[in-house]
Amino acid sequence: MPDKIFEESLRLIDQANSEDPNKVLDSDNKEWPKELLYSHHMSDMLERFAPETDDEMKLAIRAQHIQRWKSPRSDFPMNRKGYHQWRTALYTFHAETLAALMQQAGYAEDALNRVKLAVGKKALKKNPDTQLVENIAALVFIEHYMQEFADKHPEYDEEKWIDIIRKTWRKMSAEAQAFALSGSIKLPEPLVPLIQKALSKD
């Protein structure tokens, strides 16, 4: 029987993401609130990559982008420094929002601290929880969002794309890298030659 506080936390996360005013279509042409669809992509990927994951990390994965639209990029200076400030603020916002919902559902302080570390992207490469969130986010980006990102940036040349791919790759653990290349995820077909070229330089 599923844990009641886990199920309630999941419900609260989905409810929060359902408020996203931005709408997108999935592969079946069904309309979703943008961050709700993203959160389901994250959970689906987790089931494929690490199905044995415990409930607390399932919630962290589901809430990685929780209510992202509430902290828009435009609130920060439109330069490199502003971008990094925005990313740092987002990590804190997502972590605190998830912890508040889990506390509302009945989770104890140790669980809240654990998910805040993971969703807040603390100690990447050292904290297994943080690394798992990063792995799933990278895999989801490659399968579902890399082509869309490419379509939005036709001005990016080959070197820029190789840099983006390599940065994404370096964030992943060896296990996630192997998973990505094993046929377990769908690579964006037009970008496969670029992905191969980027990885061959490692």
In order across it, which strands form the biggest sheet?
Answer: 1-2
The overall pLDDT, averaged over residues, is 92
Helix content: 55-70%
Unreliable residue runs? none
Kindly report the oligomeric state of this protein.
single chain
Element-level helix/strand string: HEEHHHHHHHH
Structural class: mainly alpha
Number of domains: 2
Shape estimate: globular
Q: How many H/I helical runs? A: 9
Please state roughly what percent of the residues sit in beta strands, choosing from under 5%, 5-15%, 15-25%, 25-35%, 35-45% or over 45%.
under 5%
The N- to C-terminal Cα distance equals 46 Å
Characterize the main sheet.
2 strands, antiparallel
Written description of the protein model:
- Helices cover 65% and strands 3% of the residues.
- It is mainly alpha-helical.
- A hairpin with a 5-residue loop joins strand 1 (23-25) and strand 2 (31-33).
- The chain is built from nine helices and two strands; from the N terminus they run αββαααααααα.
- A two-stranded antiparallel sheet has the order 1-2.
- It has two domains: 1-122, no CATH class; 137-202, no CATH class.
- The radius of gyration is 17 Å and the shape is globular.
Features:
two-stranded antiparallel sheet, mainly alpha, 9 helices, 202 residues, 2 domains, 2 strands
Layout: helices, strands, pairs:
Layout: H1 4-17, E1 23-25, E2 31-33, H2 34-49, H3 55-62, H4 80-105, H5 109-119, H6 128-152, H7 158-171, H8 174-181, H9 192-200
Antiparallel strand pairs: 1-2
